Amino acid sequence: MQSDHLISFEHVTKTFITWDGETHAVENVSFSVNEGEFVTLLGPSGCGKSTLLSILAGLIKPTNGEVHIRNEKVTGTSKHIGYMLQQDYLLGWRTIKENIFLGLEIQGLETEQNQKKALKLLAEMGLLSYKDHYPSQLSGGMRQRVALVRTLATNPDILLLDEPFSALDYQTKLKLEDLVIDTLRRKKKTAVLVTHDISEAIAMSDRIIILSPNPGRIKTVIEIPDVIRTPLPFASREVPEFQSYFQMVWKELNYS
């Protein structure tokens, strides 16, 4: 069946077999993401958020169901997708410049033009003067900005963000949220974020998919209104409606 959606999850279930038996990570999950949309998977630990991201990235296969990108079934990793994780995984023996070229090397895209684009991205992140430094010489927030450049350097259509700010101090995290959203809007990218941070989800997203745990199922979907979505994340937290959406999401997550 043809779809206008960029990403489609269709009745996805994932069961892991361990020595203790079967573990149902996610069960019968269906949702779609439109081009240019920012969607967040939100829920407590153990609800299968990262499992869904790994299935979308083609790193693991669903037990049942299918995932499609541009109406093509995901059967393995794809050049359409960039992945940004909680840890930056920069290679300590390579300079910053060499690190941001890594994806280009792996995909055989290391042309002079692509290298120039990657360095331009590094300049946009305010880090061009650090191109000959090594990762150990940079702060955690700077390293995550480098990781973002490395991810965007191959020009993926879809960015997967697996709690990319959770290891950072709060001030750095807030600055990076703004930087990521501003960059993705300008580059017209589609993103799927995994987090358990309610404020982060509301501030960054067009839509929040709340998962219930053990196994992960979609509990509810919350559309974020334009009044919150339009400003950058830091400013959106000051919008009067923000608090009512925080309470709404909090209630859906069933925190006691």
From TrEMBL:
Q: Which organism is it from?
A: Ammoniphilus resinae
- State the InterPro entries in the record: AAA+_ATPase (IPR003593), ABC_transporter-like_ATP-bd (IPR003439), ABC_transporter-like_CS (IPR017871), ABC_transporter_ATP-bind (IPR050166), P-loop_NTPase (IPR027417)
Q: Would the keyword Magnesium turn up in this protein's UniProt record?
A: no
Q: Does the keyword Disulfide bond apply?
A: no
Show the Gene3D superfamilies listed in the entry.
Answer: P-loop containing nucleotide triphosphate hydrolases
Q: Under what name is this protein listed? A: NitT/TauT family transport system ATP-binding protein
Q: What keywords tag this UniProt record?
A: ATP-binding, Nucleotide-binding, Transport
Q: From the UniProt record, which GO molecular function terms apply?
A: ATP binding
The UniProt record lists the ABC transporter domain at 7-238
Q: Per the record, a Pfam family? A: ABC_tran
